[in-house]
Amino acid sequence: MSDTLYPLADAAIQCPDPARKCELAVALRCRWDRGDVRRDPVGEPRSIGEPGRPARPHLVPPRDLVQRRLSRTDGRAALIHAVAHIEFNAINLALDAIYRFRDMPDAYYGDWLQVAAEEASHFRLLQRRLQELGYDYGDFPAHNGLWQMCRDTAHDVLVRMALVPRVLEARGLDVTPGMMERLRAAGDDRTAEILAVILREEEGHVAIGSRWYRYCCEQRGLEPRPLFRQLLERYMQGGLKGPFNWSARLNAGFTEDELRELERLDAPGV
Q1: Which residues pair with 4 in a beta bridge?
Q2: How many helices (H) and strands (E) does the chain have?
Q3: pTM
Q4: Given 122, 147, 190, 208, which is the most exposed site by the fewest CB atoms within 10 A?
Q5: What local confidence, expressed as pLDDT, does residue 51 receive?
Q6: Cβ neighbours for 89, distance < 8 A, ≥ 6 positions apart
Q7: How far is 250 from 183, CA to CA, in rounded Å?
Q8: What number does CATH give the domain 5-51+72-266?
């Protein structure tokens, strides 16, 4: 296989087997860190399609997903499965950010290779927990919203950095603490501990998105805050749903002014 970055990233994206995809993502990050992989400016990325994925889980619209009680084992497993599916998609999202956008500094690729490897670690932790409960990845239906946003932002690295890490992944910073509380109340401290690890590392992933979003704005002479609002209006019908985890979002590169504006946009009647 080629020792150039983009074909190796694409091979991992296209791999349908979750275990092998995780191995490829981690290995690519290690090879980059050792200096064994080079960037080759020749060639253009293919038009974005669907990533490699197993035949299961069955993908359905978000409204068709059934809410299950966390007091039941199948309810906890369904929640873990939903997060595992997000992490599986996040591996592909990070790899596509590498494969698709080819005129960024080397540090950008190192950052997103770190994200891909950590998302692979998150998926493995969650899959292992599912197996401990008698289930596996693919046993519950899932939705494809994360990858759809990847498709919608494939034309521009600035838009990708604004909307995937700073909107979709940042939502995890808001909702994960509540999930952890509910799991602990149901007696599932082990899953809550796994989510605590994921929450800590996801702060770093959103911070990476914030850093490169601002880098792209600076390169183009654009103001980050009003542009972010414009992108929300275009792609997210104007705003995001709160409440927002101020502490985690501040650690992840949001400013207090940005968070106040998000809360204002979330207010009734706005």
Answers
A1: 38
A2: 11, 0
A3: 0.94
A4: 190
A5: 92
A6: 51, 144, 146, 147
A7: 25
A8: 1.20.1260
